[in-house]
Amino acid sequence: MKVLVTGGAGYLGSITAKALEQAGHVPVILDSLLSGPRTFVGDRIFYEGDIVDRELLRRIVSEHPDIEATIHMAARIVVPESVDLPYEYYRDNVAKSLEMFDALTGLGKPRILFSSTASLYALTPEFEVNESDAVDPTSPYARTKRMMEMALEDLSRASDLRAIILRYFNPIGADPDLETGYHLRDATHVVPLMAQTALGQRDSFTITGTEHPTRDGTGIRDYIHVWDLARAHVRAVEEFDSVLASEGSTYTYINLGGGDGVTVRELLAAVERVVGKPVPVTEAPPRPGDAVGAFANADKAYRLLGWKTELSLDDAIASALAWGEKRKEVLGYE
Hints:
By secondary structure, the protein is α/β, with parallel strands linked by helices. It contains 11 helices and 15 strands. Helix 4 (86-106) runs parallel beside helix 5 (140-158).
């Protein structure tokens, strides 16, 4: 089948496009190239433009009437930046997405897989969260995602739109062939930062927040190899209608995570184990918008999609490190 992938030139979008191809599907990429590099598109079907451009969406559907679903990954995603630039985040993540959802529904393409985030979950004493747990987004970024979740619920009740909302935990690593990976020049994700430090590209790694109510005072996350995350999207596309039928609903939420919690200090120890040498560390207060964290109860993903993670934390770290060594060759910068 053909699948429209918005943000398909980005980190997660490009790797998901590859997973779709390997499963026999055809990704159609729509990306503004605001942050995703053109080289990540490769020779896939590609449209450069904005998701809010209704005429462009009409042309894409006209030229590819066999598109069966849209994986909506295009978004601004940097938490501290969202604190500084809330207007841009609400404009791009909320207002533009609404226009795209309305346009696609009107064009007879109502199946939406939406990239959401686990960072909107409320803090729980056990840190493990399932899809029915309370939410309490603490940053403009997370609030834009929650707003879109609520919009998709309402739109699906009132129109033909149907939605599977995938709440990502923390994807790390690169695609198996090291053709694409984390690409931002100024890394904001923890493992790329650790990887760059391990490779000598940074003087030290900064642990932001050391007095959280976790077992060692640092934030807790659920790290998932990006290839496992990409595979989950393939399963969700293939099982889209049956998932909603089994739920008896026009929308549903699914956690995508490994199902265990790793603190920042534990992740640092894992990186040191994989690299075989220490990573210099400094400590600092939490960044604006930072959440203590959570890890996934991923039972629903297994029940509905037959999906669970297959790659280990060490696999993901090794992948991130390998990409860190190769990304200059691919992108032209470290």
